[in-house]
Amino acid sequence: MSARKNPIGQQAADTSQKPGNRRKTLLRLWRYLYELKWLFLLAALLMMAANLFALVGPLLSGYGIDAIQLGPGKVDFPKVFFYCGWMIAFYLASAILSYIISRLMIYLSQRIVSTLRRDVFDKLMTLPIRYFDQNQTGDIISRMSYDIDTINTSLTSDSVQVLSSMVTVFGSLAMMIIISPPLVLVFVVTVPAAILLTHFLMKKFRPLFRMRSRKLGELNGFVEETLSGQQTIKIYHQEATMIDRFAVKNEEAVNAYYNAEYYGSMTGPSVNFINNLSLSLISVFGALLFLRGQLSLGKVSSFVLYSRKFSGPINEMANIFSELQSALAAAERVFRLLDEEPEKADDPEALVLDHAKGDVVFQNVDFSYDPGRPIIKDLQLKAKAGDLVAIVGPTGAGKTTIVNLLMRFYDVDSGEITLDGHDSRQVTRASLRKRYAMVLQDTWLFTGTVYENLAYGNDAADFAAVVKAAQAAHVHEFIMSLPKGYDTVISEDGTAISQGQKQLLTIARAMLLDADLLILDEATSNVDTQTELLIQQAMTQLMKGKTSFVIAHRLSTIRNADLILVVDQGRIVEQGTHQQLLAAKGFYERLYQAQFDLPQT
Predict the structure, then answer these.
(1) Which of 207, 514, 229, 233 lies closest to 332, judged by CA?
(2) What is the DSSP secondary-structure string of 500-529?
(3) DSSP alpha helices (H): ranges in 129-185?
(4) Which of 5, 407, 567, 601 has a CB 3.0–4.6 Å from the CB of 397, allowing a cystine?
């Protein structure tokens, strides 16, 4: 492993991680505790009782020791046993309450984790497609798993532990003042020193915990991408390259984790040194007071025990504050996700479309994913109800962007898109998207039965309708060959199902939708030629009476289209029927010849 560099120097160069508002973050974390305030209050009361019971022990111990110091060979055994018996009772009661508290905190923490994950998942469902285009899947998963687990550790156990420590500190301080006010003066020096040191260290190490969360998120993102691209990696023999890249990512994550934990862990030992120094001073001055007859040996013993109880929580709180920095860094990442702008709300007066005839018009449409980099420029398009509109063009021409705009995954920068004369921005997204059935080149199946996957978009579909759609998509025979037919459980990645079969399943799913328009984005790209012909026949039936948009690279599949739009650099450069465009001998004719009239060698 390479030598570790100065983490504070490294962090200084990282300007992307600005310090968050700690108070605001803590208040937001407190809201999750407040939802379970009665359980938290019960845990706090039990914790206070457990600590108060434990605080009685040193006092009783002192009384027991004083009962021994009556003279040579003289011990008041009844008193010793009396005080020892009460010590056992109080410590046992404290232990029982501590056990109850631990069980309660486990329940409390899991409830909070569940709420946090629910909020994050609910938020993800409201975010626009743009967010998922710009963020790694693995990093998002890291926020839902690692970051929330990190928050959970401090949000529950540490918060109650802080309260417990405060009770112990103030209780011990009160008892020490009662026993010997002069000895308490030792803490006038050591306690401020411990507080100042803790504050100084926390200020220095806080950026390291932010770096740790960020690097672990990047590592998770890289691993997720690698796992999803295993086939491509093996095809191109890039296993060694990916191992090297992982080693770099892993090294960065390990260094970030090491730096945060190593330098963060300095707080506890540093404060512990100061506490041990205070204990040494107490022992020296306590012995002097005993020799002068101003303090009994039992009281000296009790004071020493209370000083340990007093300084111990201070040391624990220093460690807790170190853990809290990690929790705050994780919370900032989670709350940044929760604060992301959701998909823009529909206009309050937006129209709800229950049916669409299918007239689609693009009027002077401009669009860019990033400002200054236009993708679509002054696009003019008119599709009549029931038309089959094919969109062709080179890679990066803007074909898929047109689909994104039709579905309002993105809104246009200028111009308008109308459906039956209604500006799509004045139609609710939910009702607009329900008017479209869509089959993408990238198939998606979830873990569930075949039947559940096919009926995914239509809760009203019965078994007969699902079978009919599967037959129309020519996938029924394949389904029946599975161990349990339509009740066979398939996994999210479609293991043991070919890409073409997955494509057929998604086509059958689209056939079950009660939609008025259809979008096919290279829907037959992963099937063989014979199956493609069968699907085209099924699609012909499916597209009857529906306005259909087909993005195609195989120009042979769109010969019968009512309108072919040739897109290049965000503009429609040609449009017409297949025969008209061939006769024009322009861009489309060159694309067609490139596929079917390759020069002979």
Answers:
(1) 207
(2) HHHHHHHHHHHHTS--SEEEEESTTTTS-H
(3) 129-134, 137-142, 148-152, 159-179, 181-184
(4) 567
Q: List the structure tokens of 224.
A: 């997720």
**Rounded distance between C-alpha atoms, residue 228 and residue 231, angstroms:** 8
Q: How far apart are the first and last CA of the chain?
A: 55
Q: Are strands 422-423 and 414-419 parallel, antiparallel or unpaired?
A: antiparallel
Q: Residue 78's Cα: distance from chain center in Å?
A: 62
Instruction: Please check whether residue 561 is in contact with residue 588, taking contact to mean a CB–CB distance below 8 angstroms.
Output: no
| Per-residue DSSP letter, 266 | T
Predicted TM-score (pTM) of the model is: 0.68
> Residue 374: in which H helix or E strand, if any?
strand 373-383
Per residue in 35-68, pLDDT tens?
888 888 888 888 888 888 887 877 777 777 776 6
CA angle 8-14-19, nearest 5°?
Answer: 80
Domain architecture of the chain: domains with CATH: 28-33+113-338 (1.20.1560.10), 344-435+518-527+548-601 (3.40.50.300)
Element (H, E) at 381: strand 373-383
- 512-536 pLDDT, tens digit per residue, is 887 888 888 776 665 666 766 766 7
